Amino acid sequence: MIADQPKKSHTNYLGEYKFYAAGRWRSSHEAIDVIFPYENSIVAKVFLAQPGDVEASIAGAVKAFEITKKYSSFERSEILGKAACALKQNKENLAKILTLENGKAIKDARAEVDRAILTFTIAKEEAKRVGGEVLPVDIVSSTKGRFAVVKRFPIGPVAGITPFNFPLNLVCHKVAAAIAAGNPVIIKPASKTPLCALELAKIFESIKISENQSLPEGIFSVLPCKTSVAEPLITDDRIKLLSFTGSADVGWGLKNKAGKKKVTLELGGNAALIVHDDADVELAASRVSVGGFAVAGQSCISVQRIYVHEKVFDEFSKKLVSKVKTLVVGDPLNDKTDVASMVDVQNAQRVEQWVDLAVKDGGKLLFGGKRDKNITSIYLPTILANVPETSPVCTKEIFGPVVVLQKYKDFKDAVKRSNNSLYGLQAGIFTKDIDKIMFAFNELDVGGVMVNEVPTYRIDNQPYGGVKNSGFGREGPKYVIEEMTELKVMIVNVREP
Question: pTM for the full model?
């Protein structure tokens, strides 16, 4: 079902947003418009940080670190708990803002706010568990009487660069872990979607550790700005860790510029799914109808390549087409909408070009295959089959609502073909055979394997990340905290009294 051409309206205009630098709301001579993709209408004006604001934020973070590194586990946990509570209280407002700046369906926006609340809640608990160990070092005769204490210490100011597709929760993953570890954090949000990050800054501005104690001014900054202006967040040695989520080309380029600081990269994907002949085909088709098309396919782990055993290929194809036909496509602010706008018309055009090329090269179009004639930022949910595996829809990250079905005979061959990608983020498998499950777990060259589930599945406490061109390091508060802390050992020579 496709919505009619929307009428342009000013009812969704949110006003002007200043940026938040070292505890102060600031404006500048330069601003950008934030566009609601579905209507192609302006929903906000956001002022852009300038070089002096970036410097103030870094200096403020360094100063704040002298305070945050001394916070107790209880204090760090309290900060995160109050942030989670504020997110919950503002859930509906945040979901609408998220939809307006990103274009995703409101039901997906609400789910993202719920995930953001969960991320802070998990980090709240992990803040109490940033520990270490007592290490026996009396392992040779010369070290008799000695023992060691190993403890984690906060690393220092952290910079996070976040993408447009999850403009709240991916910010929260970086912010929550940094605070849990005892570090100040500076966020550069995607230029298309800076509003949720700025709303999070409002929340942090209101948080107090106690009735008389506010947070230090530099603990959290949000700097929408040009890439060139953000350069010090990558190159300045006062920033101790850079966490980037985005495209592979940009991520690896940033790593080369980052110098001695730690870098974590969560980059692209090209998620493969294997549906074996003993699979629950109904379940597999149902899950793909969500995992391939939610958020208009604009997720690094959106289902893209589906390898289906030849015995169930026709059955799976028919069930998937039937389910995708029922998806409601249109106005993202409508509660019933399943698939809404892509982030802009240019990305919808790119997907259209790739699909057209796949069909021209011999692929079969089972469903969709075009943009909506009225809302040109909407690309219809699309199912392709038997596309040459050298086609861009198979080799690249399509980042759109498109899945490609391929037949296979041998399970090991399906695993091999799944691995034939520059990316290695997550993969999925539907089968009841424990031997095949373990083979896939051992052999799939990815950061996560989902069994009887689509690779799009993610829970926010898992170690999330990939290999190959998908980056390195893991998200999930517990695992990021390890990156954002340094181990220090103290060895004690106990003398007899």
Answer: 0.95
